[in-house]
Inverse folding.
């Protein structure tokens, strides 16, 4: 066997192993992030920026967490507490601002502890977010009739 052919086989085998490893890590990360909680695809944009980032939004008990779509980190990129998160009225995305992975999405201006940002959500995801935000946290006002 020529040495060049052996080198090519090693390179191709290594690249294939890395691709399989990345797919496995992505799958395991997604399973770890969900852990039985509600996940939805969303966009995130800090206030002064024009660039949307696509990720996963998770509704936990008292915290809204946003994870980047790619990568292997199991930690959220952003966290917002339910009690201090302010949601404004959703606004239809402009034609030049449409996210291809979120057709028919609306942008929702938000504020958390004085920091402004926007989330891009489908209508059903916005409804879920609004009801999550307005619901009382577990154990809070439990004895109210």
């Amino acid at each position: 066997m020529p040495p060049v052919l052996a080198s090519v086989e090693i390179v191709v085998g290594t690249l294939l192993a890395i691709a399989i490893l990345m797919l496995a890590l992505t799958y395991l990360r997604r399973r770890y992030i969900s852990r039985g909680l509600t996940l939805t695809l969303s966009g995130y944009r800090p206030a002064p920026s024009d660039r949307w980032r696509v990720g996963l939004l998770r509704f936990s008990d008292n915290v809204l967490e946003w994870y980047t779509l790619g990568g292997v980190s199991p930690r959220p990129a952003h966290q917002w507490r339910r009690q201090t998160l302010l949601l404004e009225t959703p606004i239809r995305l402009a034609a030049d601002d449409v996210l291809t992975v979120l057709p028919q999405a609306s942008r929702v201006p938000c504020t958390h502890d004085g920091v402004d940002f926007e989330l891009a959500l489908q209508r059903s995801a916005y409804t879920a977010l609004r009801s999550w935000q307005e619901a009382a946290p577990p154990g809070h006002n439990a004895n109210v009739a």
User: Anything to note?
Assistant: Strands lie at 38-46, 53-59, 63-68, 78-81, 85-87, 91-92, 106-112, 115-121. The chain has two domains: 1-36, 37-134. Helices lie at 3-34, 123-134. The first strand starts at residue 38 and ends at 46.
